[in-house]
Design brief:
With about 525 residues, the protein is of the alpha/beta class. It contains 15 helices and 15 strands. It has a 7-stranded parallel β-sheet, sandwiched between helices. Strand 6, helix 12 and strand 7 form a beta-alpha-beta unit. The longest helix has about 40 residues. The N terminus is likely disordered.
Length: about 525
């Protein structure tokens, strides 16, 4: 459910031979647009040196690489994306026939695994809610002394505790914002308008009494920070977005009585079922997936919007992510669909803390490996250590072993020094492979629009774009070789940085396998030597 976390964050926003210390300049007041493409030595920004990569590729031929974006949907008609959208060459559009015999009728630009004949799923519950609901039915009135499966019962008690805490916190956050809205309505004394600066000032002095209030304050503060200038707006409008986001938790994500799966019409418990869904890859949401797609491959020649990292790709749109947690069955089928239909790189900017059917995803990852498909995944936005906490899906298989075709990506910041890490990013000395720009990242959004978002959801497609660039110009390299190149060519961060979610500092090598930030130019340089 990273996309929701990123949306909330987006309100606020939402080196090795390059010589970091020598190249650092006085930090700008805000991030330069497109800073993720910049070069430390030339521009003073710890981007991925995209243009330097293309300088090294001059005169070389490339071949088109299909990149699957498994997300909440992609605006395939976007002005900066329509020229790079994958089209199934074996399928005839809108004839109601499965021309290529792959099981998916009219899958022209991809597939939607969370849609039915008449409508699509927009909101869904969290995985913890689904797990709690299923175990609650079994154990709510059980006599502990008579329980035969003690391990499952203990898991039920643990999930119940975590679920009830999440629900209580969500309601507290919503109550807190409602109360804050009431304060401003009262202070307005009949005047329904209030200046944004007044709310911002109030937030600076407000002292949260509970963790839930602290989180609510953060969410509201992030939302208001995105507002330009000191607009005078209706009180209801100022608080509406934050209330809507928080209400999603109580109305959908943590509502045990909410289950929209009937919309899809599949046999949900049959994890081996492959054929269901529809071909509608544009969703009511879709800003997130459209942003991700733009970072990978937005048209680099049309002089509008932004530029993708890779210059010869076809974006395959696969929808599995609702407003809520994605489901393992859908993720597994999305990976298989991508592998079966020619994708060589897959971006997955989503994740969750619980898994219902991890093995079905593991099997799909192994299947992708057999097809030489590289999977790139966002590490998450909770400021947690992935070596010690769950973040699904991941490259660790049930029963042992791990995927060699998987890259886990944390988010770096445009700010220098100790602030080089994004404060929200997950990390892990062994669980995260590399960091990539992930704060104030400019890209496409639905309806020919553009915006800057933060999140590991943005960091991941920048790495996926780099992988696609390498696979395009060096097609003989395998998925595992491209992974090795990206990790080994990452530019080391030599200064100590803040541990995300903390004020404590550490070596960057303690936060990820590579100890550095992805660099397209260095990756090209290394690929040339293979």
């Amino acid at each position: 459910m990273f996309k929701l976390q990123v949306k909330l964050l987006s309100f606020a926003l939402m080196l090795g031979s390059f010589g970091v210390a020598q190249a650092q300049k006085e930090a700008p007041a805000k991030a330069p647009v497109g800073w993720h493409h910049l070069d430390m030595k030339k521009d003073g920004q710890f981007g991925i040196s995209t243009e330097q990569a293309y300088e090294q590729l001059k005169g070389m031929k490339s071949q088109k690489v299909v990149v699957a974006v498994i997300d909440d949907g992609v605006d395939i008609n976007h002005e900066d994306l329509k020229s790079v959208i994958w089209t199934n060459p074996k399928e005839i559009a809108d004839n109601g026939i499965d021309d290529d015999k792959n099981g998916y009728v009219d899958d022209i630009h991809g597939w939607n695994f969370i849609g039915g004949k008449a409508e699509d799923i927009d909101h869904d519950s969290k995985e913890i809610t689904r797990l709690y609901r299923s175990l609650k039915t079994k154990y709510e009135n059980a006599d502990p002394a008579k329980v035969t499966d003690k391990a499952e019962y203990d898991r039920y008690l643990s999930i119940k505790k975590d679920f009830e805490k999440e629900l209580k916190d969500a309601q507290s956050q919503l109550d807190m914002v409602n109360a804050m809205e009431g304060i401003f309505k009262g202070a307005a004394k009949g005047n329904p308008m209030v200046a944004l600066s007044q709310v911002k000032t109030y937030l600076k002095t407000f002292k949260p009494a509970t963790p839930a209030e602290k989180k609510a304050k953060t969410i509201l503060k992030l939302q208001l920070m995105a507002a330009k200038g000191d607009n005078v707006l209706p009180v209801d409008q100022i608080f509406a977005e934050a209330k809507e986001q928080m209400a999603s938790f109580t109305d959908y994500h943590l509502n045990v009585n909410y289950d929209p799966r009937a919309i899809v019409g599949d046999d949900y418990v049959n994890v081996n079922e492959r054929i269901y869904g529809n071909n509608r890859v544009i969703s009511h949401n879709g800003d997130h997936g459209t942003h991700v797609a733009g970072l990978i491959g937005a048209d680099r020649k049309n002089d509008i919007g932004g530029k993708g990292v890779a210059d010869n790709v076809a974006i395959m749109a696969i929808r599995v992510v609702p407003d809520g947690d994605e489901r393992d069955k859908d993720v597994a089928n999305a990976i298989r669909y991508a592998a079966d239909n020619g994708a060589k790189v897959v971006n997955m900017s989503f994740g969750k803390s619980y898994a219902l059917n991890k093995k079905v995803v593991d099997d799909a990852v192994k299947y992708a490996a057999s097809k030489d498909v590289l999977l790139v995944h966002a590490a998450g936005n909770d400021g947690k250590n992935n070596d010690k906490s769950n973040n699904f899906p991941n490259d660790k298989f049930e029963g042992g072993g791990e995927a060699t075709n998987w890259i886990e990506v944390g988010a770096s910041n445009w700010k220098p020094g100790a602030d080089r890490t994004a404060n929200f990013s997950n990390y892990g000395k062994t669980g995260v492979d590399v960091f990539s720009p992930g704060v104030d990242i400019f890209s496409s959004t639905k309806g020919d629009k553009y915006d800057s978002y933060p999140g590991t959801s943005m960091a991941s497609p920048i790495v996926a774009g780099t992988a696609a660039l390498i696979r395009s110009y060096f097609p003989a390299l395998s998925a595992s070789e491209v992974k090795e190149i990206i990790i080994k060519s990452a530019v080391p961060v030599t200064e100590k940085v803040k541990i995300p979610g903390s004020k404590k500092k550490t070596k960057f090598s303690e936060l990820c396998v590579s100890g550095g930030i992805v660099n397209a130019a260095k990756a090209v340089e290394m690929a040339k030597k293979k």
